[in-house]
Amino acid sequence: MSSSIEAEPGTSPDSGYFARVGVVQLAAQLRAGRVSPLDLVEIALGEAARTQPVLNAFVTLDEAGARAAAGRAAQELAAGTDRGPLHGVPVAIKDVIDVQGLPTTAGSRHLAGNIARQDADCVKRLRAAGAIVVGKTATHEFANGPTGDRSAGGPTRNPYSTSRMAGGSSSGSAAAVAAGIVPLALGTDTGGSVRVPAACCGVVGLKPTHGAVSVQGVIPLAPSFDTVGPIARTAADCHLLWTALSDGPSAHPPIATPRIGWLPPGSLFPTTPEITGLARDFAGDLIAGEVSVPDAKELRDAYQIMQGSEAYAVHAERLAAAPELYGEEVRDRLRAGGEVRGWEYVRALDLRDRVRPAVAELFRRYGFLALPTIPLSPPPLDSRAEPIGGEQVDVRAALLALTSPWSVLGLPAVSVPAGLLDGLPAGLQLVGPPGSERQLLSLAEHLQTPNL
To answer: Is 163 designated active site?
Structure first.
């Protein structure tokens, strides 16, 4: 079948074809014969090529592989083999995740020419669900940064404003979904690397419970925190991608009237008041009260200690052998991690273990916690200090300030678009108890479609 669908010009968040049609609609169109998997693949490849000079969302496109997979998907659907709603739908994969036969470079000169020998477990799951991998998306170097503007392939730009950061480290995946290049993408989240770019780019991003999805075939950053997470334009689409990743039921859990505890973000980090207002207003009447988390700021420090130490352990030999192949910023972060002392790591572990029971008690009182995802609008590319309330703050610390505590605790969290401030996205972060990914996504969908 030849495609009669044409992409609109431009690089705004609503310019790409997949910005205007959800996965459920795509699945219906495929089964009705109105489009074919090859149609969708050609659209995604065309959108990627069109926007690449401006957004730099991709590092590799697998044109031949995607077209071959589209042919197989079409044959299966025609023969009555239906793998579910992702069957024949294009998806993009962050370039720290192995896709057989494609480069996995992790945004680093160290891994130039590194070709994956097999699919990562998460990619195998997507292929089993019928999804079609169209390419690999840009990442902050070795996924070690929240800004998305330090990579061997250059910075990824925000579809809302190309002078702004897309966030990191899953910068390309979030930008590709926001621009409508693909409907779905995979990222990884260690301290915020799915949630931060999701908030910056105005899409939905889920960090699952630590250990809920295999990280086999994923280049590690800090194994105690590393997770693989889905990115989509809506919570409903994110739920479908999560179902394929987790091999769980596709039906949404019933949404009762949840009780949300609001965590004032200023208790963690200075936050732009307008962003606080957007996030709280978006959660609306579901907020049942304000909460506090003991030692919340200390959890941020614990994350820096533990992540830094573990990242250095991953890179110690490579750092010693060829430090010049790292970008200066990531090299300095890794070396700082190497200075962490054993007793500091042990104290960070002790803090985590002390806080967990108190947070578990909060979840007994409130089903979920809510706060903004990031405390400021997406900063300009290369900015490392920005004002919040008259105070200059470190951009990298700010971007991770509201997400990293939940990574230390291993909890699932989702970022959902809460509105625009001066034309730039703001995100609401919902945090739940271990294993509550489906409930979080159901709640996020409820907020996105209040008439549910």
So the answer is: no
